[in-house]
Specification:
The complex is a heterodimer of chains A (307) and B (320).
Chain A (H helix, E strand, L loop, with lengths): L1 H13 L2 H32 L3 H6 L15 H8 L1 H33 L6 H13 L4 H10 L17 H12 L3 H9 L4 H12 L1 H17 L2 H6 L8 H10 L5 H5 L4 H44 L1
Helix pairs in contact in A: 2-15, 4-15, 5-8, 5-11, 5-13, 11-15, 13-15
Chain B lengths: L1 H10 L8 H36 L12 H4 L6 H7 L3 H20 L1 H11 L4 H12 L6 H11 L5 H8 L11 H29 L3 H9 L4 H25 L7 H7 L5 H4 L2 H11 L3 H30 L5
Helix pairs in contact in B: 4-16, 5-10, 6-10, 7-10, 8-13, 10-12, 12-16, 15-16
Classes of the chains: A mainly alpha (307), B mainly alpha (320).
Chain lengths: 307, 320
């Protein structure tokens, strides 16, 4: 029925010439959007494989293909950089442990707040929601981490953000939407809270849980600021911070990256290495992304319904 | 024993055991299992959210790490006065507002327009490709995005070169203060326009197809349908999103700016939050920067509150 209506609607439209022109322009616009979005990333890939000397000569030109002769040397340099490898390890640690802690905390909190008839739920909710609007701010937050002895520890990237209140509310909404009858019959059978949570609520909320894992995971992957203020030892830096330090410097900490390359080549290599670094750190997300896209999109909807 | 007695008493309607404390005691005893599960969260919020809030009092003290928060001497409003009378105050306020308002004026309508245009694409496969590609930048880290901006807008960068064809002077754009706000806003739109459109696309699919049919029978053109059916259909979504956006008008995030700016363009690029970051964590003026940060959050909250009140009155849509 709906499809029929749609066809009726469309066939009517196609008759007006104005709309046909609009459709053509609109399609061109969308094609442009694809190019504008995708090309910068493609450019990085092409540039990273290019010959550094030729790339400098071709500076400012649109690349459709790497400038010959191709080279993998930028990648070799990136992968042989000691901080790059420790960066990956640190990021994976924070990503895995951090997301596990996020999910455990979020699920436990959401469970209790989603139960009805608990007298303390309203005060606890107020206690939690206040923190969405007020915070100590940058400096008191830093002093707090310092007083807890977390400076220069990877835990300083995990513990301060152990729960996102926003995500917790999304989780709570999902738990609250599970039919009461299921929970009640389990309670009659004498099930404990933890059993109700793990055997009934969690299995019925898998889509929301998947969305939140992705949100927390991407957050950890992309985070760099906390690391830049809390960490001091280079070998503890996560990938994003290592990248920022390399990408930010005009001439990459030359000694570490360049090794045997001559002084003149160094300047040319810098840009190449930056592109290679961008590619290497972005590709994992971009490869995973199309498979996960529908979960992410679902997450926006869940958030919207709550909002 | 006590529990039984109290339960019995409350059932028989005897007043005393129905006092708040008694009911609370019964509630906790009955539901201690559930409360136990939320205990870690209460600890978390206490340690990582409320304890730093207590730390705000250093805005009214002369904090030094040696003396600690408690032991540092009170100085009243000294730091606030210093900030309000400083040369930077008006510049920071102006930059914060201009970056934020420019972002709203151009960045807020962009995903709505994009969603409306995308909605007109009838080829589902093509539509899905456009969506997949345009959502992508949302997931790229700010570190990478800002490096791209820097590389592409450098003196020999690709964007600078393309612009020089139409007569722009080829300069490193981020070394000129007049280019900062446009670069900040345009790159923000580039990154978020696709992702931001999701919410509107879903609102569009919720519009009753019968309305379009009726409009077509009444002889409405496509453009009239957009004005009189489509737009009203997503108005409430637009209003909610606008409220949320307006609430953050005074809180321009520091992360992207820190990644992009340099001393040469502080004139347009330095905002309150980046100022707090530099004074506090790089120059160790703990109390002064806390005072500036507190000023910012108070204004923020006042704006959120005001926007919420206004929208409740005007559109009956509100956050709380």
């Amino acid at each position: 029925m709906v499809a029929g209506k749609g066809n009726f609607h469309m066939s009517k439209i196609k008759t007006t010439p104005g709309y046909r022109i609009f459709t053509i322009l609109n399609t061109i616009f969308m094609l442009l959007m694809i190019v504008i979005t995708a090309y910068p990333l493609y450019y990085c890939v092409a540039a990273s494989f290019s010959n550094p000397t030729q790339l400098t000569l071709n500076a400012g030109k649109l690349l459709l293909w790497p400038v010959e002769p191709y080279t993998m040397s930028a990648y070799q340099k990136v992968f042989s950089h000691s901080l790059f490898l420790s960066g990956w390890t640190n990021t994976l640690f924070v990503l895995v442990i951090g997301t596990v802690i996020n999910m455990v905390m979020t699920i436990l909190t959401a469970y209790t707040l989603s139960r009805r008839g608990l007298m303390l739920n309203t005060p606890i909710t107020v206690f939690i929601v206040i923190t969405m609007y007020f915070s100590g701010g940058l400096v008191p937050g830093y002093l707090n981490i310092k007083s807890l002895g977390l400076i220069d520890s990877l835990w300083s990237l995990i513990l301060p953000g152990a729960i996102s209140t926003y995500n917790m509310i999304i989780m709570k909404t999902a738990f609250a939407s599970v039919p009461d009858s299921l929970v009640e019959s389990a309670q009659l059978d004498g099930a404990k809270h933890i059993t109700i949570l793990t055997q009934i609520l969690v299995p019925l909320s898998v889509p929301t849980i998947a969305v939140l894992i992705l949100y927390y995971g991407v957050g950890h992957w992309n985070a760099w600021f906390a690391a830049s203020i809390y960490l001091q030892t280079n070998s503890k830096f996560p990938l994003q911070l290592v990248m920022r330090n390399i990408l930010n410097s005009a001439n990459v900490n030359v000694n570490e990256m360049m090794g045997d390359v001559g002084v003149e080549d160094q300047a040319r290599y810098v840009e190449l290495i930056k592109y290679a670094l961008i590619v290497v750190s972005t590709v994992p997300i971009l490869i995973l992304y199309p498979f996960l896209q529908r979960y992410f999109v679902k997450g926006v909807m869940i958030g919207a319904i709550k909002g | 024993m006590t529990t039984k007695f109290q339960t019995a008493a409350s059932e028989s309607g005897l007043g005393k055991s129905n006092s708040l404390l008694a009911r609370l005691g019964r509630d906790i005893r009955k539901n201690y299992g559930a409360y136990l599960l939320i205990l870690p969260a209460i600890l978390y919020y206490t340690i990582f959210c409320y304890k730093p809030m207590y730390g705000i009092i250093i805005a009214f003290k002369d904090f030094s790490p040696g003396k600690g928060i408690f032991g540092s001497p009170w100085v009243g409003l000294k730091h606030f006065e210093a900030f309000f009378s400083s040369y930077y105050f008006w510049r920071l306020l102006k930059n914060t507002l201009s970056i934020s308002l420019t972002s709203i004026v151009f960045g807020f309508p962009a995903p709505i327009i994009f969603a409306l245009l995308l909605n007109e694409i009838r080829n589902m496969k093509f539509k899905r490709v456009v969506q997949t590609v345009t959502y992508m930048p949302h997931f790229i880290s700010l570190v990478v995005i800002c490096s791209l901006i820097k590389l592409f807008t450098a003196e020999d960068g690709i964007i600078t070169s393309l612009l020089s064809v139409v007569g722009f002077e080829p300069v490193t754009m981020l070394s000129k203060s007049r280019y900062f706000v446009p670069l900040y806003v345009i790159s923000g739109i580039w990154q978020e326009v696709g992702w931001g459109s999701i919410i509107y696309l879903s609102a569009l699919t919720a519009i009753d197809p019968g309305l379009y049919e009726a409009a077509t029978i009444d002889g409405a053109t496509r453009w009239q349908q957009t004005l009189h059916v489509t737009l009203p259909g997503i108005t409430s979504t637009i209003i909610i999103m606008l409220i949320l956006r307006m609430g953050s008008v005074m809180s321009v995030g520091y992360e992207k700016i820190i990644l992009l700016y340099n001393e040469g363009i502080f004139e347009t690029a330095d905002v309150i939050s980046t100022f707090v970051y530099r004074k506090g964590l790089q120059q160790f003026q703990w109390s002064y920067s806390t005072a500036v940060g507190l000023f910012n959050s108070v204004i923020n909250f006042a704006i959120v509150f005001a926007v919420n009140q206004i929208s409740r009155r005007v559109s009956e849509v509100s956050l709380w």
